[in-house]
């Protein structure tokens, strides 16, 4: 993305030289200022990630299901496979529309552990691996929905 910022700047200069109409001064100033600044910030972020590598791990054994999400305790967990009730997809509905879908596991105690899809995870494969150890686990195709607002007050299904 940092490199493409410079492609936009170069495209502006090419258009300015060969284009039929002049580029508005405000647009010219914005592109020549914002894109190089964004490029520097993106290069610094990339450099930081190269110097501070992190590893995402999801491990399923016959006793535990463990997810280690780099830098996030909220999305990291280690649970007993026998305590998993089901895998599910969740989504909230409100007067503002649909919320961001969440994928994860619902425990027998009612707690929910989010499994991020950021690393190319396949929740269906995770479900199949857990199902081999705990055949009672289910994964319904229906999205578990929570609705709030305008007279609606439905929580997620247990």
Task: Reconstruct the topology from this structure.
Layout: H1 2-18, H2 25-51, E1 57-60, E2 64-68, E3 77-80, E4 84-94, E5 97-98, E6 102-107, E7 112-114, H3 123-133, E8 144-149, E9 152-154
Parallel strand pairs: 4-8
Antiparallel strand pairs: 1-2, 2-3, 4-5, 4-6, 6-7, 8-9
Instruction: Write the element-wise H/E pattern from the N-terminal end onward.
Output: HHEEEEEEEHEE
Count up the helices: 3
For the largest beta-sheet, the strand count, sense and barrel status come to:
6 strands, mixed
Judged by helices, strands and strand pairing, the structural class is: alpha+beta
Roughly what fraction of the amino acids lie in strands?
Answer: 25-35%
Taking pLDDT < 50 over at least 5 consecutive residues as the criterion, the unreliable ranges are: none
Kindly state the mean pLDDT as a whole number? 90
The total strand number stands at: 9
The helicity comes to 25-40%
Q: Report the end-to-end length measured between terminal Cα atoms.
A: 43 Å
What is the gyration radius calculated from CA atoms?
A: 23 Å
Identify the overall geometry.
elongated
